[in-house]
Write a structure and sequence with these properties.
Blueprint (H helix, E strand, L loop, with lengths): L1 E5 L3 H13 L3 E5 L2 H10 L4 E5 L7 H10 L5 E6 L4 H9 L4 E4 L4 H13 L9 E3 L2 E4 L4 E4 L2 E2 L4 H12 L7 H8 L10 H13 L6 E3 L3 E3 L1
Parallel strand pairs: 1-2, 1-3, 3-4, 4-5
Antiparallel strand pairs: 6-7, 7-8, 8-9, 10-11
Protein name: Response regulator transcription factor
Organism: Streptomyces atroolivaceus
Keywords: DNA-binding, Phosphoprotein
Length: about 220
């Protein structure tokens, strides 16, 4: 899942981004509304965590622009105000969910994951394919009932492949969904991660390389 965090309080923004990355999400961070509009115009995000009170371009205008573009991106709006009228106003702007500050990080994570599921065809909470069970909420992976410990990027790559339901996923698509914009696209990070993931999942191999196209399960 790829997420954009838009928050002018830099310490909070960076803390949220760090926490979501530990949950195997690819996260970009910006600190004002103008930068947010620039990012959503270039990258495809599953979820935008959007502070309402932003400098340069207000969060309301960012939300309106995302809606006008007809993007499948879901918006989780944050604000220091917890008034019901503010929540209603935010939702009427086109936000998909609303979370007042201060918030529990566990709740933020759960809401981001729930919104991320709504950007694609609905799938069961626990993904199963080729003897692999993946639970995104618990961040657990089992093969034939044996738990497998994965690093965050390995988990993210496996989740993308599982969600594709047998379709081929290119290296570029994996890079877009599992890494943030600071990753050099010319590195072999995808190939190395897939190799490590394939080894950890054991025999017989479940991740198939499709020459010239990508990978599938």
């Amino acid at each position: 899942m790829r997420v954009l965090v838009v928050e002018d309080e830099q310490l909070l923004a960076d803390a949220v981004a760090t926490g979501l990355r530990r949950e195997a999400m690819a996260v970009d961070v910006v600190y004002d509304g103008a930068a947010a509009l620039e990012r959503v115009g270039v990258n495809d995000y599953d979820v935008v965590v959007l502070d309402r009170d932003l400098p340069v371009v207000h969060g309301d205008d960012v939300c309106r622009r995302i809606v006008e573009l007809g993007m499948p991106t879901r918006v989780l709006m944050l604000t220091a105000s917890g008034d019901v009228s503010d929540r209603v106003e935010g939702l009427e702007l086109g936000a998909d969910d609303y979370l007042p500050k201060p918030f529990a990080f566990s709740e933020l994570t759960a809401r981001v994951r729930a919104l991320g599921r709504r950007t694609t065809v609905a799938l069961p909470p626990v993904l199963e394919r080729a003897g692999i069970k993946l639970d995104p909420n618990r961040r657990e992976v089992f093969r034939d009932e044996q738990e497998i410990q994965l690093a965050p990027k390995e988990f993210a790559v496996l989740e993308v492949l599982m969600r594709s339901e047998g379709a081929v996923v290119s290296a570029e698509q994996l890079l877009e969904k599992a890494w943030d914009e600071n990753t050099d696209p010319f590195t072999n990070v995808v190939r190395v991660t897939v190799m490590t993931l394939r080894r950890k999942l054991g025999e017989p191999p479940v991740i198939i390389t499709v020459p010239g196209s990508g990978y599938r399960i």
